[in-house]
Write a sequence for this structure.
């Protein structure tokens, strides 16, 4: 009868383990080389624009930049759901000027009104954000499902770009 691990003795196991540990240590040094210069340790850190609700959009973006934050979750005041494509382009232009990337939009109430919910998802798509934050009532599940059809591929593509 053959032993299942006959070729792997303790010495060989320790050699392989030590080599793997050294490889991981060396690899992690290269993988995390940029993290030591990052004040947030490699984490994506931002703020919800509601934090700056007493300010208009541009002063809010300036405050984010002054804090060293490069990501934002917009809320209704700084990026209204009723924004036209031209207004959204202006918002994104300001974001670029202040080196702030929109990552989410919300917090928005979702109900069984599929058309209204779809508008929120379309806004997120126009902003190129991979996340919409919502409060829902008990009637909104089917509506949210219907509102997201066709947007899942868009969100997956955005995640692959980042």
């Amino acid at each position: 009868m053959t032993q299942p691990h006959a070729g792997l003795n303790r010495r060989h196991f320790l050699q392989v383990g030590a080599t793997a540990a050294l490889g991981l240590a060396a690899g992690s040094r290269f993988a995390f080389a940029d993290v030591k210069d990052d004040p947030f340790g490699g984490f994506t850190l931002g703020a919800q624009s509601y934090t700056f609700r007493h300010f208009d959009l541009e002063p809010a973006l300036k405050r984010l930049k002054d804090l060293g934050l490069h990501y934002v979750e917009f809320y209704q005041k700084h990026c209204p759901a009723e924004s036209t494509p031209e207004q959204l382009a202006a918002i994104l232009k300001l974001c670029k000027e202040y080196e702030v990337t929109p990552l989410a939009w919300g917090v928005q109430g979702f109900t069984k009104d599929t058309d209204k919910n779809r508008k929120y998802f379309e806004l997120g798509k126009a902003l190129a954000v991979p996340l919409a934050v919502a409060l829902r009532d008990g009637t909104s599940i089917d509506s949210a499902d219907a509102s997201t059809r066709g947007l899942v591929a868009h969100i997956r593509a955005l995640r692959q770009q980042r």
